[in-house]
């Protein structure tokens, strides 16, 4: 099923002998046994893209929608989103987004994310990422890069498109 690699959790500062790097239809993931967090995109990107479309139909289009595995995240992924209607640091739009996302993917799937990050849709770094990785309802894979000032081990961008 997977390739045994003992360096994955050790790279995160936790050596453990039972570590597997798993490649599957959802992409690359890590399975660390014991008290360590399991990681990898456990929810399918098809399911996330479906949720993205459903939420966009209800609220408006996203400028950015993707999942990031930060280099320092111990194997857990972040959901990173931006939309004109989803204002950065505003609780009500984030609450509405989270409720719609939960309705679409389920509470268990939502719990698989380390955090949900909202980006200001006017941020110049967002504009640069949208220009570099333009995609609309697809998948662009970015590995070992720096995005939005973060060291990214892996990213799957499902939407990066200028706001209409």
Summarize the structure in short.
The protein is α+β, with helices and mostly antiparallel strands.
Question: Which helices and strands appear, and what pairs or packs with what?
Answer:
Blueprint: E1 2-4, H1 8-11, E2 19-24, E3 27-32, H2 45-59, E4 64-70, E5 77-82, H3 91-105, H4 107-110, E6 113-118, H5 124-132, E7 135-147, E8 150-160
Parallel strand pairs: 5-6
Antiparallel strand pairs: 1-2, 2-3, 4-5, 4-8, 7-8
Helix pairs in contact: 2-3
Give the neighbour order of strands across the main sheet. Answer: 6-5-4-8-7
Query: Residue ranges: pLDDT <50 for 5 or more in a row?
Result: 1-40
Oligomer: single chain
Q: Roughly what fraction of the amino acids lie in strands?
A: 35-45%
Number of helices: 5
How widely separated are the two ends? Answer: 43 Å
Basic shape: globular
Radius of gyration: 16 Å
User: SSE order, as H and E?
Assistant: EHEEHEEHHEHEE
How is this structure best described in words?
The chain is α+β, with helices and mostly antiparallel strands. 29% of the residues lie in helices and 35% in strands. A hairpin with a 2-residue loop joins strand 2 (19-24) and strand 3 (27-32). Helix 2 crosses helix 3. It is globular and about 30 Å long. The N and C termini lie far apart (43 Å). The model is unreliable at 1-40 (pLDDT under 50).
